[in-house]
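Researcher: I've got a protein sequence and the SMILES for adenosine-5'-triphosphate. Could you write out the 3D structure of the bound complex as structure tokens? I'd like something to compare against our soaking experiments later this week.
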Amino acid sequence: MSSHSNSPVAELAGRVDAVGGGRGAISLRNVSQSYGSGDAAVTAVGPVDLDIPPGEFLVLVGASGCGKSTLLRLIAGFEPATQGDVEVSGGQPVPGITSGVVFQQPRLFPWKTVGGNIDLALKYARVPKGERARRRDELLTRVGLDDTADRRIWEISGGQQQRVAIARALAGQTSLLLLDEPFAALDALTRERLQEDLRTVSSDLGRTNVFVTHSADEAAFLGSRIVVLTSRPGRVALDIPSTLPRVGVGADDLRGSPEYAALRAEIGAAVKEAAAA
Ligand SMILES: Nc1ncnc2c1ncn2[C@@H]1O[C@H](COP(=O)(O)OP(=O)(O)OP(=O)(O)O)[C@@H](O)[C@H]1O
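Model: Sure. Here is the predicted complex with adenosine-5'-triphosphate in place.
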């Protein structure tokens, strides 16, 4: 078991979305995204074909500017693809409904308290008013932020703010979590701790995760499958299923294992090769 197997975030995962009916599945068919027109047109990504079954922890990795965030935005439904079909849970992606999103910066509402940020997410998730306070406290307890509901956002650390952002994403109880370099701005220790919590969460059945990163370390540690993108326009250069165990081994043991080292090296080499191609 991970050293954080009983962590609050892990417990929370058990409550998010029942498995079944293809919820959380992602299908990308011949998907491309371009910006601008004429000589100024830029194709950011594609064409990409990808099937992500429910429960997968897919890491998208590639050099800066290769289109990782663009692909994530298409899956979130923030913008329509210029070409191809994007389906989530068997239909069109709908922001805030078919997925929860965590960005590099927590993007919390600074004028609201910690609890107020979660309340708003519960409201958008159409959780009945009478249930919101209980659910909010439950979420905060389970991301390790007991007794912070009344704190202002600037009174808590960056790592704590990112925990609030994760709780907020989970408040919607979506079967898909999209994470765009969520730990990049954090110190190394906090980053490792949150990676461990997230990995433990993901080993619970039911939720699909798509996680964007530059880091081969992070990709090897987190992914049940790692997709390496080419340089812009990002296409699938390599699709690597991870054989690392997702439960039953501690984070330190995993990070110290030769299998992890080999996977990390394979990803690192593939990213370099794909960026140069
Ligand atoms: N709204 C937009 N308008 C014009 N160009 C865009 C837009 N969004 C992205 N691009 C371009 O598309 C390309 C891919 O950008 P994207 O942010 O998806 O890459 P990325 O792999 O996530 O980069 P990084 O790792 O640096 O965050 C870049 O060249 C970027 O400038």
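Model: The beta strands are 26-35, 42-52, 57-61, 83-88, 100-102, 176-180, 208-213, 225-229, 236-241. The radius of gyration is 18 Å.
Researcher: Great, I'll pass this along to the crystallography team.
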